[in-house]
Amino acid sequence: MRAALTRGLPGLLVALMLAALALVWLPAPGAHAATDVSTVAAALRKGPVYVDPAASGQLSATEADALAAKIKKADKPVFVAVLPADFPTANLFRNLRTDTGITGLYAIRLGDRFDARADSAVMSRSAVQNLVTSVQGVSDANTQLNEFTDRALANIHGAAPASWGGSSNDGGVSTGALIAVGAVAVIGGAGAYTVVRRNRRRQEEEQRAALDRLRVVVDEDITAFGEELDRLDFHPAEAGADDAMRADYERALDAYEQAKSSMAQARRPEDVRAVTQSLEEGRFSLAVLAARREGRPVPERRAPCFFDPRHGPSVADAAWTPAGGASREVPVCKADWMRLTGGEQPAVREVETEYGRRPYWDAGPAYGPWAGGYFGGGLLPGLLVGTVLGSIMASPGYGAAYGTGYGDFGGGYDGGDVSGADFDSGDFGGGFGDGGGGDFGGGGGDFGGGF
pTM of the prediction? Predict the structure, then answer.
């Protein structure tokens, strides 16, 4: 019997090996249906549109191909996923963005619900929210996704990722093909990482150079404010001083110290915004203190003088027309208001540029953060329309290189760049179905709380 068993071992081993191979090569149950975020992410790395097999009734293969072709033709980083209603929603956008690893706009149709998120380098939160809201009433998936995509393509920054290739909705793929694709992806990923790192290094060098130019101007602003404090010659114990005056003076001193501290810690141009914001607050405190000491009414809070924020808070709005631009109302100090009224030129803040001294609004994008701290992002667009700085800040190039907000030099990755998990998770937080744009509740990134 032992001999018989021994003779039968080779055949038995062969049978066991064949059975094991069969288990390896047989497609896993449900392999054609997405069960996790990684499946969706893998598909989106290969193409802009993914339709889960369980949601194919919402968007046909023909419709999905047409939508993908539209996005590819526009060369924009827009990602669209159509998923079944019961797809897990906890941290859905954040996990999908992490797994896909590409900077862009991510839109998801989940059953009959729709929402989207985007890296701020490609689209602002408010823009995403507005786009999502504009299509929330559309029930047909194909119509909704096309309307959203058409509007998004007209507003988004950046370019399509280099990894997009064939259809992302193919059926089963052989293990050999997956290995080959994986090898290519590793090689391509290494190349993409090299390009991104080189681009990031170049941007860091540009930021250092921009900060060096800004440092001269900001130091002048800090020095000027310190001189104003000295000229005021206020003593908390002087006759007539009351608690309100002492509080004003303390706020001005705190602003002065905060401005110096923020500038000492500045590492990027956008850090300058905190410095000029402190100076603006400090100058207003000095204006209030001066009014109290002189028995005048406390002035209303107004933006600083547009022509030179060192002039202090504005007292009125006056018409001003930049060279080759349209007329607009700008906040002005009393001295500049009198100059304009008398037909004279205002005292404009000029800074050094490679073309000589120019008004700050004609000096380039580095002055966006500087102006943003003084005037705030909401006021700047109207003030700067038609100027060099306004044109640069309104361009997609400024949004991609220096961020989408006025004076925001953050980011480091353009739309379509491979960033992996290096992104602001706040851009992808909030609850699914809350209208998009991030900070709208839902449990701080728990997408189950937004339904």
Answer: 0.49
